From TrEMBL:
Gene3D superfamilies reported in the protein's UniProt record: 1.10.287.130, 3.40.50.2300, Histidine kinase-like ATPase, C-terminal domain
Protein name: histidine kinase
EC number(s) recorded for this UniProt protein: 2.7.13.3
Record-annotated membrane-spanning stretches: none
InterPro entries assigned to the protein according to its UniProt record, in alphabetical order: CheY-like_superfamily, HATPase_C_sf, HATPase_dom, His_kinase_dom, HisK_dim/P_dom, HisK_dim/P_sf, Sig_transdc_His_kin-like_C, Sig_transdc_resp-reg_receiver
Keywords: ATP-binding, Cell membrane, Kinase, Membrane, Nucleotide-binding, Phosphoprotein, Transferase, Two-component regulatory system
PROSITE patterns: HIS_KIN, RESPONSE_REGULATORY
Residue positions, PTM 4-aspartylphosphate: D65
Pfam families registered for this protein in UniProt: HATPase_c, HisKA, Response_reg
Membrane topology: Multi-pass membrane protein
Residue ranges of domain Histidine kinase in the record: 171-389
Subcellular location: Cell membrane; Membrane raft
């Protein structure tokens, strides 16, 4: 939308709808006498022509006579109500037609003038004022539309978050319930086979695995609480990239072995200093490695690579797995989001791992991104962290 100051730098297009040619010529002469602002007039001598030109939307302002043959300017204003956008309209009336002017105002005219009192200065002032008012109205409408759209997006986001939280609660109940049956069975087996050392050992191992799974779920829940309340903290200290990546690889080794994938590591031989929380950074990369193992089919490859790039270290976790659809990529770091990357087996999990990765990386002054060429093409997560001085 152009500003009025920009518009008056060029001749203003004004449509005069008046069936009296002499009155039109008088109006044209008055506007020709205006100094500083140029007007380019078009004349519509009939009701139908005036309505057609108004619908064409080519004018900056309209001067509309009340009497138009057997019809009136009020009739034309009623028909013009259907127009989505229209220029400011100024009604020209005869003396003593106040009721007509008031009705015209209810139909959206910007102003009204009595023909008998017209002057070049008055016409100029009223036209420019009407144009300025219309611009302000359009700006306000644009702000209202933008704000309405913003509120609609926020409302949709709240509904989506509420849905994801409900899904999370249902999934949490399922995940917490899953270990209970094996635990109950293991306890019953131990009770019935107390003298069978081998059976007791198998039951004990099963108990250990299931309890470990429940502990991991509880830890995830605690991290959810810390993320949502803004209480997630890191304890930074001088560390090395190698120490962090070695710890992450050690944590993820069981998941990688269980998935039967090939694990490749390519990291700098030299020591790269970092300033951060070793445990939390190891959690970042182990989460990414576990995620890669989860969605890579047997025989596939998971690669952990790192390199120094100026004042940053760039760490990538790349897998040859099922990939991520383009429409899902923007949401992979959202809390409670579980990306459906099916491998015909239940993957489980609470859907907070990647959200936790992003928050922990941000707390270390870094950033994380994801790239995938689509389903079946694998995925690559890239973490950038500042190198310690």
């Amino acid at each position: 939308m152009r500003d009025l100051a920009e518009m008056i730098a060029e001749p203003l297009a004004v449509l005069v709808i008046d069936d009296d040619r002499e009155d039109y010529l008088l109006t044209r002469e008055m506007l020709a006498d205006v100094g500083g602002v140029a007007f380019k007039l078009d004349h519509a001598a009939t009701y139908d022509d005036g309505l057609a030109q108004l619908r064409a939307g080519k004018h900056d302002a309209v001067l509309l006579d009340y009497r138009l043959g057997g019809r009136t300017g009020i009739d034309l204003l009623r028909e013009a109500q259907e127009l989505e956008r229209r220029p400011p309209i100024i009604l020209l009336t005869g003396r003593g037609q106040r009721d007509v002017a008031l009705e015209a105002l209810t139909l959206g005219v910007s102003d009204y003038l009595e023909k008998s009192g017209l002057s070049p200065a008055l016409l100029e002032r009223v036209i420019l004022y009407a144009m300025r008012q219309r611009q302000q109205e359009e700006r306000l409408e644009e702000k209202v539309r933008a704000r309405t759209a913003e509120l609609a997006r926020a409302n949709d986001a709240l509904r989506d978050e509420d849905r994801r939280k409900n899904d999370f609660i249902a999934m949490l109940a399922h995940e917490l319930r899953n270990p209970l049956a094996p635990i109950r069975n293991a306890l019953e087996i131990m009770r019935l086979t107390a003298d069978d050392a081998e059976a007791v050992e198998r039951s004990r191992a099963m108990l250990e695995r299931q309890v470990g799974q429940m502990v991991r779920l509880i830890d995830d829940l605690l991290d959810v609480s810390r993320i949502t309340t803004g209480k997630l903290r890191v304890q930074a200290e001088p560390i090395t990239l190698r120490a962090v990546l070695d710890a992450a690889a050690e944590i993820s080794r069981p998941a990688l072995d269980k998935a039967k994938v090939r694990f490749e590591v390519c990291v700098p031989a030299e020591s790269v200093p970092l300033y951060g929380d070793r445990v939390r950074l190891a959690q970042v990369f182990s989460n990414l490695l576990n995620n890669a193992a989860k969605y890579t089919p047997e025989g596939g490859t998971v690669k952990l690579a790192a390199e120094r790039s100026g004042a940053e270290v760039v760490v990538t976790v790349r897998d040859s797995g099922v990939g991520i659809p383009a429409d899902v990529l923007p949401r992979v770091f959202d809390l409670f989001t579980q990306v459906d990357r099916t491998l015909n087996r239940s993957q489980g999990g609470l859907g907070i791992g990647l959200a936790l990765v992003q928050r922990l990386v941000q707390l270390h002054g870094g950033r994380v991104s994801v790239r995938s060429d689509g389903p079946g093409r694998g995925a690559e997560f890239t973490v950038r962290l500042p190198v310690a001085e």
